[in-house]
Each structure stands twice: as structure tokens, then as C-alpha cells.
């Protein structure tokens, strides 16, 4: 849940129009079928066959498929914990991701801290704060392999977006410089002071820009 919210925070804070693909707002994940026979994508099937012929181990090939197969974006929408994720009472063309039992729209709507409601908060932030649309983008700490962070700045507002892309706690000294700013949103339910980001934690902090007028 935290990693899905972190990725959403990073994306929605950037320039351009964020596109939400079906199920992304629920935290739907890549599927990990235990057999190549369950995949339909011709590119995936051909790659599996070619790599077998080159001597790759099946487990190694499947690991690559889990990360990159186009079928990851083709599993049916997960509406509920009912059979076939509530997508159909018939037999779907493509197998439903087995995790539909716990990741589905019905569960999301019943959980006030779900990924779905977090997306709503992000969208509301974008609509209420012009800096999301008009602000200049500046990437910070470009060499950092664990933290992705940047600022957006317009004539009235500056905001910091800071995201931890790891499953461990990471220090981000930039947060000390922004300690007096207002936390607009973070993907953990409880606030925490200091410069340490928890696993997959993301935060957006806003502050007013000091405007010096000529004359």
C-alpha cells in the first residue's frame, strides 16, 4: 500500500498530465503466474521459448516476465473479492490476478486509508494548487539511488516532493531545510518529525515564496 501511494505521489507532483491506468488507483500489481501456460502475450511466449533454447533456467525467465510482460497490464479489473474479482460471472479471456481477494475496489472504498482515497487527495491537491501545473521543475540529488526528490516553484509557492524508493529507512537532509514548511500530504497515516523517510515513504511539503517587487 505504501509503495503504491509513494509512486502516485512522485507522479502527481510532476509536470504534465498524470494518467491513471485502470486499477492503478487501487494498488493493483503485476501478476506472477506460476506457469508460462497462463500467459497470452505472444511477445512473452516467444521470449520464453527463445531463452529456453539459449540455456536460461525457467525460474530466471519467469522472474523477467513478472517485471516486464505486457500481460501485467491486461489482467481484469478487480472489483470485489467475489469469483473472478467481480469482473464477470463467466470465464474471462485472461486470468484474474489471484490477489483480487485483498486488492479490489470494494475493499478500497471501505478503507479510508486505501490507495484509492489517497489518489483522490492527490488529485484534489493538484486542482487546488496551481504550482502543480505551472511550477518550474528542479530535480534534486540526481545521483541518489534511494531517494527521488524535486521541487516545483511558481511566483507564489514552492513545494518539495521527496520519495523513498527502498524498503528501508533512508535519511534525507533536505527535509531539515523544509522543517518550517507545511506538510500537504504524506503516505503514512502518522506524522513524523526529522529527516528520516520510512520504507516507501513519500511527502509533499509546501511553502510560500518570498516575492520582492521592483520599486
TrEMBL record:
Question: Does the keyword field hold Hydrolase?
Answer: yes
A Gene Ontology annotation in the biological process aspect, one of them, is: oligosaccharide catabolic process
Q: Does the keyword Transmembrane helix apply?
A: no
The record's InterPro entries line, in alphabetical order, gives: GH, GH13_cat_dom, Glyco_hydro_b, Malt_amylase-like_C
Q: Name one GO molecular function term.
A: alpha-amylase activity
- List keywords of the entry alphabetically: Glycosidase, Hydrolase
Which residue numbers delimit the Glycosyl hydrolase family 13 catalytic domain? 2-135
- The record places domain Maltogenic amylase-like C-terminal at 137-181
What name does UniProt use for this protein? DUF3459 domain-containing protein
Amino acid at each position: 500500500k505504501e509503495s503504491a501511494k509513494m509512486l502516485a505521489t512522485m507522479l502527481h507532483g510532476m509536470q504534465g498530465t498524470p494518467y491513471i491506468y485502470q486499477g492503478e488507483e487501487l494498488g493493483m500489481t503485476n501478476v506472477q503466474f506460476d506457469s508460462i501456460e497462463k500467459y497470452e502475450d505472444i511477445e512473452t511466449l516467444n521470449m520464453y521459448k527463445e531463452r529456453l533454447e539459449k540455456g536460461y533456467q525457467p525460474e530466471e525467465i519467469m522472474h523477467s516476465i513478472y517485471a516486464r510482460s505486457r500481460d501485467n497490464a491486461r489482467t481484469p479489473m478487480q472489483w470485489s473479492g467475489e469469483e473472478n474479482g467481480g469482473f464477470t460471472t463467466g470465464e474471462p479471456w485472461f486470468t484474474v490476478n489471484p490477489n483480487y481477494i485483498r486488492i479490489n475496489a470494494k475493499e478500497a472504498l471501505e478503507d479510508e486509508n486505501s490507495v484509492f482515497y489517497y489518489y483522490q487527495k492527490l488529485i484534489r491537491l493538484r486542482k487546488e494548487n496551481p504550482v502543480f501545473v505551472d511550477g518550474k521543475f528542479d530535480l534534486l540529488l540526481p545521483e541518489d539511488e534511494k531517494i527521488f526528490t524535486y521541487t516545483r516553484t511558481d511566483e507564489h509557492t514552492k513545494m518539495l516532493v521527496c520519495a523513498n524508493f527502498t524498503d528501508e529507512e533512508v535519511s534525507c537532509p533536505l527535509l531539515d531545510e523544509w522543517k518550517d514548511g507545511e506538510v500537504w500530504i504524506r503516505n503514512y497515516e502518522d506524522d513524523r518529525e526529522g529527516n528520516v523517510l520510512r520504507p516507501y515513504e513519500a511527502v509533499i511539503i509546501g511553502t510560500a515564496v518570498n516575492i520582492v517587487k521592483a520599486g
